[in-house]
Amino acid sequence: MKIVVGGIVQETNTFSPILTKIQDFKDIFILYGKEVIEDLADKNIEYAGIIKASKDFGFKIIPAIACNAWPSGKLEKGTYIKLRDELIKRVDDVKDYDAVILVLHGSMAAEGFDDTEGNLLKMLREVVKEKPIITTLDLHANVTKEMVTNSDVILGYLTYPHTDLFDTGYRAAKITIKIVKEKIKPKMVMAKLPLFLPPQTTSTKEEPMVKAVSKAKNYLKDYNFLSYFLFTAQPWLDVHDLGSGLLVVTDKNFEKAKDSCLDVAEILWKHRHDFDVKLTPINDAIEEAKNTNGLVVLSDAADSTSSGAPGDNVNILQALLDKEFNELSMLTVVDPEAVNLAVKAGINNKVNLNLGGKMDKIFSKPVNVKAVVKSIYDGKFKLESKTYFGIKMNMGKTVILKVNNIYIIVTEKRVIGYDPKVYRYVGLEPKNAKIDIAKKMIDVDNKGLASSNFSILPYKNVKRPFYPLDYDAKFKVQMIS
Ligand SMILES: [Zn+2]
């Protein structure tokens, strides 16, 4: 058996002004042919799961192109078309194969393409014809009708925080083998709701997600479905047909699959208010930190680079300076201009510069800092957290600025904030800090391009009514596939 494997992964925040270009993919990876196997086999990523399955079950992988960029603004049109066409050509060039496994995200948008994955799958279907296409997505996917129509199977991460990237690849390979060997014809059944669920409240280990997940798991077992995929979409994708729901893949019990999808969708809708994020005003959060023993993580989710925000919003830093906060604190700011000035000044020298607030001009403005340049790095290391374990990170040239007792990691490129290695790489131990402004997770009510205070964001494309943008929206749960 021969399976062609490839993919394009990026999560788009359509509010971000920063277009995603080829260089952003190069910074993480663009791999061709056998490089896919050589570079990714030992990482926590879908490709590694497929590679392991090929050894366990004895099929041959024909790698096409695999590329990932970190969450950010839309893909530049030319970048998307180049990567899409390259992938399709490489699949088309392989004449002898049994199936295609495509590794995608599901919430990627490009200039002129709100549903890039749908467009990619539609065009791929034209060359793959009747052979099976098995697609993997992120739990934060916005699964569209176009994606469902042009895939034979859609699978996705079952965890948030995402720990099962490898497992998702492995599951995709197993189901592909089943389709090819047993010649089964699976069908996808999906209920989709006009709501998105904020990442902060959708841990698959916590309520109310646990209720929906355990129901879906039970149905999978009871009715022998091939798989389920509970997708939450992500809130910063302003596209017409945005939504969350349950997708079931099955080759039997179709009516039960429909009932199961409707039931789980009803649970999400019924508990929609329980997913609301409770936010704490910046000054209150700083006061709380002052009155707490030990480390406090101020989660600046509003500027989370993991949600595609620019990572240069300095409102919390400004508040810390205004309050003359003087305990050991750490944070990151993306600002290539400031990095350049600090490098010119050199280690142990003073700089006076305007930091951050240059990309997110809507919600932030630069803060003036008089700082000492403590150290300079090249910004390259491998991630150590479970999500994308082992994947190379490139923060670009990186400097540590110290203002009072605040250590500011200033980077040329955007930083994924959920991995403590970002701090440890530059010799800082976040556990020793009083305050660590993580660009991820919960709580502080900062205004930013990935805010969970959705009323401040300029949604204009998503079909209304939509929850929580229309807080009292009424809706009857329905099937879309
Ligand atoms: Zn995700």
Largest sheet: 7 strands, mixed
Which sequence of strands runs across the widest sheet?
Answer: 10-18-11-17-16-13-12
> What is the count of β-strands?
18
Tell me, briefly, the overall form.
globular
What small molecules does this complex bind? zinc ion
Content of β-strand: 15-25%
Query: How many alpha or pi helices?
Result: 13
Structural class, from secondary structure content? alpha/beta
Query: What is the CA-CA span between the terminal residues?
Result: 30 Å
For the residues shown, what is the average pLDDT?
94
Low-confidence stretches are: none
Radius of gyration using CA atoms only: 23 Å
Helicity range: 25-40%
Overview of the structural elements:
The protein is an alpha/beta fold. 29% of the residues lie in helices and 21% in strands. It has 13 helices and 18 strands. A seven-stranded mixed beta sheet has the order 10-18-11-17-16-13-12. The longest helix has 18 residues, at 165-182. The radius of gyration is 23 Å and the shape is globular. The relative contact order is 0.13. The mean pLDDT is 94. Zinc ion is lined by residues 138-140, 162.
